[in-house]
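Pasting as-is:
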Amino acid sequence: MLGIGSSVRNQAGAPAANAPQQAFGAERFVQPVEQCEFTLTGILEQLQRDPWPVAADRRALRSTGAAMAVAVGMMESAFPNAGGRIMLFCGGPATQGPGMVVGAELKEPMRSHHDIDKEADRHYRKAIKFYEALARRAAAAGHAVDVFSGCLDQVGLAEMKSMVNWTGGNMVLTDSFVTAIFKQSFQRVLDKDEAGDLQMGFNATLEVQTTKELKVCGMIGPGVSAAKKSAMVSDTEIGVGGTTAWRLPAVTARTTVGVFFEVANQQSQALQPGSRGLVQFSTTYQHARGDYRMRVTTIARSWAEGASPDIPASFDQEAAAVLMARIAVFKAEAEEVGDVLRWLDRMLIRLCQKFGDYRRDDPASFRLGPSFSIYPQFMYHLRRSQFLQVFNSSPDETAFYRHCLFREDTTNSLTMIQPSLMSYGFEGAPAPVLLDSVSMKPDVILMLDTFFHILIWHGETIAEWRKAGYHEQPEYENLKLLLEAPVVDTQSLLVERMPVPRYIVCDQNGSQARFLVSKLNPSTSYSSTNQYGGGEAVLTDDVNVSTFLSALSGLAVKNAS
């Protein structure tokens, strides 16, 4: 599969070329592309819509779970421990057989978050168990599973998420298979480099070695445990723990994992001055050509006492925010969201008490150093994000959002947590502005990047000029250039991102402006005004950043020892 299965069979010890060729059962079903390209193309060209009639009050019968079981069984039997991908193109929910997520009758609705929380859906738990078993089998054989959804309704991504998350596959959520989002995302999965090789690796194993002062708590990312026990394993599990090695069936240049450690000798003898802790990451993977490669990275960090100024000076608040987001979302898969939010609040308060500068019981005196200054703001947006606030999101959408967070790097993950906002106007060059309702002005154009959506918002005045056609008149060339500037800037984001984000163009007070308004800090709402003046009022009961930080300051200085 993917041109690398043959290299596994022809390793050292394989029969000579002139020896009688052994017949593999897999050849009945799987052939190299160059041998079956014509036949495969003909099959794809002749595919037709299922002619079997579907009653108006019923859903189409789909045996998605059975099909996946057959695919996993064929791959693990024919190509064990050889790189491969199983791609599922899902146009609707599974309605029969193992792994079904909803019945065939339309009177039975698709499950919601409320149904899952109350355990009111009779298919959910059984489907989760079925697809998790398939995910373990695929991961053990070194195969990735990609799921492409092309349906206006849910298809069962919430049940099938383990097949993607545990194997390092791709998850793409679209309304239809004819959209540009699907077509471009699918093409990028199979992109090749200058040498003609697929830009992906297979059968990766990530192993961690540390000095005796550190223990490994776990990993959160696109992989499963390799069940390697050692003295370096911590009793505290974070994510996939209890091991120092993990299997990542598929990796790309963008694959990112979070590994968590704890200091093992906090209560024992003090560390020697100038001593260092060492962490070594060893990654072995199969290249698309079929050969195996190893990459080893060793880092050393000096030890410091708890009160040392080196600790706050070396704190990376962006990376810390992303790691905390991964832990919170991982916990949210098994715990109540309210409990996760309270845990996030406790962790933030403890950090402020530990590293803040304040006088006891005096909130006005509270200050955070430059290394921590925007961390509380990240936590504010994380608490409001679609990763933890599932209202107005289907279970499938939540599964898709969380899947992307678990695999993207720090920059992209921060964009998901706290989107970036650029302002375009006549007064100067494009510039980043506050993610705040005060930034919505009638004479500017805003570009919002949430990673999942790229939105261009026209202020009321700009929209009226555009509708009047002023930008088409030569004397208003500057308006034409202003309208084109954000469109040009979005192209680079659309080209490099995977999956391809949804592209939205809207006007102030338009229906799709909700995508922007929902992400803004409501410093101007129906019940309050902001200190800067201007901006559009946001109709929400959410507290704004200022209120959140004021409450945080009060809790941090209260009962502080």
